[in-house]
TrEMBL record:
It is found in: Cell membrane. It comes from the Bacteria. The chain crosses the membrane at residues 12-38, 81-99, 111-129, 141-161, 182-204, 258-278. Coiled coil: none annotated. Its main location: membrane. InterPro entries: MetI-like (IPR000515), MetI-like_sf (IPR035906). This is Carbohydrate ABC transporter permease. Residues 74-265 form the ABC transmembrane type-1 domain. Belongs to the binding-protein-dependent transport system permease family. Pfam families: BPD_transp_1. Keywords: Cell membrane, Membrane, Transmembrane, Transmembrane helix, Transport.
């Protein structure tokens, strides 16, 4: 029995090599930062790191846990991401469900009212004044309330809801279910792809947000992780004198550059861990939401 030889087309081979090169270019910065974070700070500063650590150590991570600022900022980022994502899903999802109804009063005019701010807004200064007047300055809610409603995500969810079979809602209403019951028990379980898509959008936005922490608070213990990381990179002051003293007593040697790299890894890992669990829903949700506008 003759075995068939696998034919490799030159174009396919070229595409494969190009994709491999793209993956290497994309992943190498992450690998470099991680290897730097587990390398001895002094050795890493004097020699170039490639794809393996130099004098492996966990002192950089120990220094992170010694610094209460970074731990506090990390938990603020976790809290704002979880609470902000849940509130966004609730408010935006309910609005999308309402707009998916063709018999909604003034539906087209209301949609236009919400869509216009996607293209035009009042600017940063009026927004800042509004935040201050609402009493949200130096308030944890400033990270959550302004993002409770997302017009783009609402439109994506609306399109998805419109494609669900109306028979599901009709059968539930025949059994005596109200609109909220239909939304909670029929629409949400049937809409996991688009919900996962919105979770990725708003979750990444909340986790990576740094400007609001810089603008709307002047308290050090209210800064999220990304804002603190921005200050570390900008000011090049990753370690305070007090922290250096604590690290010296613990026989831990670190440098500002090593702290930057370690903080970058800590701020990136949560998104890398969560994404694989949502990926199968994320791709499907994006494709379905793009069918019609």
């Amino acid at each position: 029995m003759k075995t068939k030889r696998l034919k490799v087309r030159p174009l396919s081979l070229l595409n494969g090599l190009a994709l491999i090169a793209l993956c290497v270019v994309t992943l190498y910065p992450i690998v470099y930062v991680f290897m730097y974070s587990i390398s001895d700070a002094a050795a890493a500063a004097s020699r170039s790191i490639t794809v393996y650590p130099i004098e492996f150590t966990l002192d950089n991570y120990r220094s992170i846990f010694v610094d209460n600022r970074i731990l506090k900022a990390f938990w603020i980022s976790v809290e704002r991401t979880v609470l902000g994502t849940l509130l966004h899903l609730l408010v935006t999802g309910l609005a999308a469900y309402a707009f998916s109804k063709e018999n909604l009063f003034m539906r087209r005019k209301l949609l236009m009212f919400f869509i216009i701010p996607l293209y035009f807004n009042g600017g940063l200064l009026p927004f800042y004044v509004q935040i201050v007047n609402l009493g949200l300055y130096n308030n944890f809610l400033v990270y959550i309330l302004p993002t409770a409603m997302g017009i783009f995500n609402m439109l994506v969810m609306k399109v998805f809801f419109e494609q669900l079979p109306r028979s599901l809602e009709e059968s539930a209403k025949v059994d005596g279910a109200g609109e909220f019951t239909v939304f909670a028990r029929i629409i949400i379980p049937s809409s996991m792809p688009v919900i996962a898509t919105v979770i990725m959008f708003i979750g990444v936005q909340q986790w990576n947000s740094w400007f609001d922490g810089l603008l709307f608070t002047n308290k050090a213990d209210m800064a999220p992780l990304q804002t603190l990381l921005y200050k570390i990179i900008l000011e090049n002051q990753a370690t305070s004198m007090e922290q250096l003293a604590r690290l010296a007593n613990a026989n831990v040697s670190v440098t500002p550059e090593a702290i930057k790299m370690t903080t970058l890894i800590i701020s990136t890992v949560p998104m890398l861990v969560i994404y694989p669990f949502l990926q199968k829903y994320f791709v499907k949700g994006m494709m379905i939401g793009a069918v019609k506008g």
